[in-house]
Specification:
By secondary structure, the protein is of the alpha/beta class. The protein has 9 helices and 10 strands. A hairpin with a 2-residue loop joins strand 9 (about 390) and strand 10. This is Glycoprotein gp2.
Length: about 425
């Protein structure tokens, strides 16, 4: 059995790294084809956006509509939290520094029920704490080595190296991703962490028979329509429902919630922040294609590759742009501009060419025009900074040494950025 588990784990590693080995992937700037980005301050009818009023009344809604229809998909209905159950609260977590709260949000419609488990760590030193809200990849119990955290019962991607086998977690996986979360440092800095396993909203597989999507199906419908949400939009919807709860939690400063995500969940955080302006800050950690990176650059992962490997992430209409990025009516700098004038942080990693660090930087750079129109600084530089030299205007950016990951270095910058605007 150990040999079988080892080879399963090895195959997972190979699969994880496989996309970067695909043929015809561009990793050389000299081979990037010419492209022309749509101007974020030029309307689709050709008119120019010269005032904040026109941005808010005309341009912003039109850009949001294009992304909804052609990239992420629309949410086909409304559904509120039907019930909240607090499982436990401890005032002596993390060596007495924090309050731990575990609760479930329940959603019900017709004969369907969905339970979303929320883990919260809040600093005891503050009556109302600013918080980072972020999805985790394998269950709330993986973010910190705390035996009191409930093990997820949801479907989870296999990872035999930490005891996740047959899509079910075990005690072995407890605290297995704690390096990515830096919970103690977050608490000591005066912030709370609110985290949810993203698979509680929608399991990350090409199957729309479970998760939140079927709650909105019409009779005989088995799959979202071409202009309806893929998994990223569903996960973003879930973040907004957690925000609904946080607005009512007296221990949370709901005016200071930073939504954060890494990789596919970085894409999710950006789309959540674009749709829901209650998020006071948005942080994208190496979100790549369909996130912060420009699609039309065709560097690293492309629209065709991502739609082939993960056909469930975006709406069906997005597949029209497979190897056809030039026909996109919008590009990702326009997504970042939808966050304006709220603080936005975009981060890259030097060893993560798959996510196109330069494309992520350029996206932040071009989004700055809207920040400046609305009276804020935007990104304070015009050329990419050196590795491990963060810059922080109203848009922050860094490219760090290392590979695709969420690290203590990243968290140090995000805490500094939050300090700038939340304290």
């Amino acid at each position: 059995m150990k040999c079988i588990a080892f080879f399963v784990f090895l195959s997972l590693l190979i699969f994880k790294d496989a996309p970067a080995q695909q043929p015809n992937v561009i990793y050389d700037e000299a081979n990037v084809p010419e492209y022309k980005l749509p101007d974020v301050l030029t309307r689709f009818n050709g008119g120019k956006v010269k005032s904040a009023k026109v941005w808010y009344k005309k341009q912003r809604p039109e850009i949001l509509k294009k992304f909804t229809e052609e990239v992420y998909g629309k949410v086909p209905g409304k559904l509120e939290i039907s019930d909240v159950k607090v499982w436990e609260t401890s005032n002596d977590a993390i060596n007495g520094l924090a309050i731990r709260k575990q609760l479930s949000l329940f959603f019900k419609k017709n004969d369907r029920n969905l339970e979303v488990n929320v883990l919260m760590y809040l600093p005891k030193s503050q009556r109302k704490a600013p918080v980072f809200l972020a999805y985790n990849f394998s269950g709330n119990h993986t973010v910190y080595s705390d035996p009191n955290i409930r093990l997820t019962e949801s479907w989870v991607n296999d990872n035999p190296s930490v005891g996740i086998i047959n899509n079910r977690v075990t005690e072995q996986s407890r605290g297995s991703d704690s390096e990515s979360w830096q919970v103690e440092n977050i608490i000591k800095a005066g912030y709370g962490l609110v985290t949810v396993y993203y698979g509680d909203i929608d399991p990350d597989r090409n199957d729309f028979s479970d998760g939140i999507e079927p709650f909105f199906y019409q009779p005989n419908q088995t799959h979202p329509k071409y202009d309806e949400w893929g998994s990223i939009a569903a996960w973003a919807w879930g973040l907004s429902r957690v925000m609904d709860y946080l607005e009512k939690d007296e221990q949370v400063d709901s005016q200071k919630v930073a939504v954060l995500g890494h990789s596919r969940l970085g894409k999710t955080a950006l789309w959540a922040g674009a749709n829901d302006q209650r998020f006071a800050m948005v942080i994208s950690n190496e979100s790549g294609c369909g996130g912060a990176a420009l699609s039309m650059r065709k560097f690293g992962e492309t629209v065709q590759i991502i739609n082939t490997n993960f056909p469930h992430w975006f709406c069906g209409n997005f597949k029209k742009f497979n190897d056809n990025e030039a026909d996109l009516p919008v590009d990702q700098h326009m997504l970042l501009a939808l966050i304006a004038p709220r603080p936005l942080y975009v981060a890259s990693a030097e060893g993560d060419k798959w996510s196109d660090p330069r494309g992520e930087f350029l996206s932040a750079k071009y989004a700055s025009a809207v920040y400046q129109l609305l009276g804020s600084e935007g990104l304070p530089i015009k050329e990419m900074p050196e590795v491990d030299h963060p810059v922080m205007g109203t848009i922050g950016y860094h490219i760090r040494s290392g590979k695709h990951d969420l690290t203590s270095y990243d968290w140090t910058q995000y805490i500094k950025f939050a300090d700038k605007f939340f304290k």
